[in-house]
């Protein structure tokens, strides 16, 4: 191969790499990566521990609310104030139905067994929860989180009927992904249950190095749920994110998903037609 051809190949590879890196940084608001902090189930510690912790460092998260949760009804003004401060109130269904036919699902009650639902019932309950959330925060754009990570009813993906109702849906599968790799109908997330601050910070650093999106899935923070993360470990994570906010974009799921959606649409329209 001639020197000219080698030079041309090197230039092509460089600009391809640069273009890919530039596209990712643009998607993540011109930062190295995106980090999304999500909190499931609408429990008291969300308002007692998490919202104050996030507000103290001026970071925003996504709270996936169960429509029927007594904590939603009892503390509705506090949820509204959280939304006013920029936190997303996401949809975690009306009754949090999970598939009771799967192994290890002894906690599922007959009334909330997704395997006994019809698709239309699941869709109707999720839309009813959207109506409730809209009454709380006045917003129409939001994301969904699958209860227990269950995607199907009788082999049918019920979210297929809800794609126009949401910007995206968060799942429960671990993974760091570029914008092009993200499936907005089932966004990857790392479930945290007892892991250390070091574990969480290592994930953030990997996201920075790979220019990917990292989604954390929390339940209890400092108690309040069988799935829990230590309050100190959670605080260490927030401090790191705040200290590196020039390199890390921390935003609610709906905002990150909207950026990813725009990037994917832009990439598809820029492809030459065959």
UniProtKB/TrEMBL annotation:
<feature type="signal peptide">
    <location>
        <begin position="1"/>
        <end position="23"/>
    </location>
</feature>
<keyword id="KW-0732">Signal</keyword>
<protein>
    <submittedName>
        <fullName>Polysaccharide deacetylase family protein</fullName>
    </submittedName>
</protein>
<dbReference type="Pfam" id="PF01522">
    <property type="entry name" value="Polysacc_deac_1"/>
</dbReference>
<dbReference type="InterPro" id="IPR051398">
    <property type="entry name" value="Polysacch_Deacetylase"/>
</dbReference>
<dbReference type="InterPro" id="IPR002509">
    <property type="entry name" value="NODB_dom"/>
</dbReference>
<feature type="domain" description="NodB homology">
    <location>
        <begin position="33"/>
        <end position="251"/>
    </location>
</feature>
<dbReference type="InterPro" id="IPR011330">
    <property type="entry name" value="Glyco_hydro/deAcase_b/a-brl"/>
</dbReference>
């Amino acid at each position: 191969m001639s020197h000219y051809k080698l030079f041309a190949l090197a230039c092509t590879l460089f600009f391809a790499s640069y273009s890919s890196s530039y596209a990712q940084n643009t998607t993540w608001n011109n930062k190295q990566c995106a980090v999304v902090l999500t909190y499931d189930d609408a429990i008291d510690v969300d308002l007692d521990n998490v919202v104050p912790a996030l507000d103290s460092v001026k970071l925003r998260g996504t709270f996936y609310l169960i429509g029927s949760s007594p904590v939603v009804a009892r503390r509705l003004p506090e949820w509204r104030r959280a939304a006013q401060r920029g936190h997303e109130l996401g949809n975690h269904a009306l009754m949090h139905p999970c598939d009771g036919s799967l192994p290890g699902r002894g906690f599922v009650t007959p009334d909330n067994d997704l395997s006994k639902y019809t698709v239309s019932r699941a869709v109707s309950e999720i839309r009813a929860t959207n109506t409730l959330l809209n009454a709380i925060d006045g917003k129409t754009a939001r994301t969904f989180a699958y209860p227990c990570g269950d995607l199907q009813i009788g082999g049918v993906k019920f979210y297929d009927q809800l794609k126009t109702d949401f910007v995206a849906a968060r799942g429960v599968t671990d993974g760091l992904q570029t914008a092009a790799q993200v499936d907005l109908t089932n966004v990857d997330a790392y479930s945290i249950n007892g892991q250390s601050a070091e574990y969480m910070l290592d994930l953030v650093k990997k996201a920075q190095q790979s220019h990917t999106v990292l989604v954390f899935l929390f339940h209890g923070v400092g108690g309040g749920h069988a799935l829990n993360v230590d309050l100190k470990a959670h605080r260490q994570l927030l401090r790191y994110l705040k200290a590196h906010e020039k390199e890390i974009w921390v935003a609610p799921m709906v905002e990150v998903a909207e950026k990813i959606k725009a990037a994917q649409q832009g990439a598809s329209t820029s492809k030459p037609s065959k």
